Amino acid sequence: MNASMRDIDAFLSPTVPLQAPEIAPLLHSDDLFFATNARLLRNTAVVNLLDGCAISIPCEHPGELPVGLMLWAPALRDGTVLGAAARVEAALAAARPAGAR
User: How far is CA 96 from CA 60, 66, 93, in A?
Assistant: First the structure.
């Protein structure tokens, strides 16, 4: 995998595939808890499996529920990922309406 990703600075993906669930139902059902937990961790688990590095940056519009954008790359590319995240954060900030910054 590392060889096939060599020429790519960073990948972009949602940090989690769904919005945060209600906690109360999870407290009453182990099956629901473990199924929900597996869904929430599936995107980050791929990066962990590949021994990669990642960062999640907020990308929601003001007033919306929080959403994270994950930037990730193979192992030992932390500097590249952090640099890309800084550029993405700047682009997102510049794209927001003036009153929302």
Answer: 10, 15, 5
Q: What is the pTM of this model?
A: 0.83
Residue 41 identity: L
Model confidence pLDDT, tens digit, residues 57-93 = 998 888 888 889 999 999 999 999 999 999 999 999 8
Average pLDDT of the segment spanning 43-69? 91
Q: How far apart are CA 43 and CA 55, in angstroms?
A: 12
Token pair 């929080």 is found at 66
Q: Which helix (DSSP H) or strand (DSSP E) does residue 72 occupy?
A: strand 68-73
Burial class (CB in 10 A: 0-12, 13-18, 19+), 15: buried
Separation CA 7–CA 4 (nearest Å): 8
